[in-house]
Amino acid sequence: MNTPGQTRTPTADADEARLHDVANAHEPLPWGRWLAWAIALGVGANLAWIIARNPAFEWHVVTRWFSARSIVNGLMVTLGLTVVSMLIGVLLGLGLAIARLSESLLARQLAGLYIWIFRGTPLLVQLIFWYNLSTLFPQLSIGVPFGPTFGTWNTNELITPLTAAIAGLALNEAAYMAEIIRAGLISVDSRQRETAMAFGMTRARAMRRIVIPQAMRAIVPPTGNQLISMIKATSLVSVIAMGDLLYSVQAVYNRTFEVIPLLMVAVLWYLLVTSMLNVGQSAIERYYARGEGIKATRKRAASAFASVPPNGVARSVGGQQR
C-alpha cells in the first residue's frame, strides 16, 4: 500500500496490475484430461460388461466355490507361508545387509556369496531342491567339522512339504531383502552415525536409534513390493504338494473339470489380499514420510521470508498485504 505523501510511478502501477491479474487468474478447463478419463471409463466399462456377460467364465461356479472350506483352508496356508517366510527373510536379510556393510572382509564375502547364489537361481528350482534334499544328504547332522557329531536326523523326517516351502521361500527372500535393507542404510548420511558415535553411542545403538529409523523411508516401499511378490510366489509351492490356495483350486478342478471358474476364484482371492496389502503399505509410507512434510513446510516458509524486500515492506496485491 502507498503511504501518505508517496507518489506512484507508472512502472509501479503496471507491476501491481500484473500481480493482480496473476492473483485472480483461473486455470483453463482441462478438456484433454476429461476426454482421457471419459475414454478410459468407457473402455473399462465395456471390458467389464464383456467379462460379466461371457458364459465361459461361469460366474455361478465362481460364486459357489469362492468361500468353500477347502479354498479358504488353502488361503490360510498361503497367508501363513507368507507371514512366516517374510519374517524369516527380513531377519536374515537384515543380518546379511549388516554383514555386507561391515568392516570384516570375510563377512562381506560370505554375505555376497549367499546373495549371488539365491538371487541367481530360480525360486522354483530352489523349492524342488529343498524338497528333494534327502537324495543328496540322507542324514543331517550337527557336530564339529572333522570331529565328533552331536546329533543326527533322518532328512526325510525333517524335510516335509511345509519345511521345504518355508526354507525355499525364506532363504530366497533373504537375498533380496539384504540388498533392499543395504540400499536403505547407505541412503542415510554416514556423518550422522559418526556424530552419534562421537557422543558416546555404540555402533549398534547408533544403527538402531539413528540410522534405521531414517532408512525406513527407503526400505518400506520395496519391502511392500516384496511382500506382495511373496503372496504370489507361494503359488509355486503347489509343485511340491503343499496345500496352498492354488493347490486347493487345482484339486477341485481336477475333479470337476471347471478350470476357468476355479482359476478365477484364485485370481480374485489374490487380488483381494494384495489390495489390502497395498492399503497397509500406503499407511506405513505416510507414517515414515511425516518428517519430510515438516521439512517441506519449513523450506516453503524460508522461501517466503527470503522473498520479502530488504525494507521489510511487502508488496500489495489485490488490495491485500502479502
Protein architecture, described:
The protein is mainly α. The protein has a single domain (55-137, 152-306), classed as MetI-like fold (Orthogonal Bundle). The protein has helices spanning 10-23, 31-53, 59-66, 69-101, 105-120, 123-131, 155-158, 161-186, 190-198, 203-233, 245-256, 259-288, 290-306; strands at residues 139-143, 149-154, 316-317, 320-321. A hairpin with a 5-residue loop joins strand 1 (139-143) and strand 2. The chain is flat and about 70 Å long.
List the main descriptive attributes of the protein structure presented here:
transmembrane helix, two-stranded antiparallel sheet, transmembrane transporter activity, transport, MetI-like fold, disordered C terminus, 4 strands, amino-acid transport, MetI-like, mainly alpha, 322 residues
Q: Which bin fits the share of residues in helices?
A: over 70%
For the largest beta-sheet, the strand count, sense and barrel status come to: 2 strands, antiparallel
Q: What do we call the CATH homologous superfamily? A: MetI-like
Q: For this structure, what is the CATH class?
A: Mainly Alpha
**Alpha-carbon Rg, integer:** 30 Å
Domain count:
1
Strand count: 4
State the CATH architecture: Orthogonal Bundle
Protein name: Glutamate/aspartate import permease protein GltK
Subcellular location: Cell inner membrane; Cell membrane
Subunit structure: The complex is composed of two ATP-binding proteins (GltL), two transmembrane proteins (GltJ and GltK) and a solute-binding protein (GltI).
Pfam families: BPD_transp_1
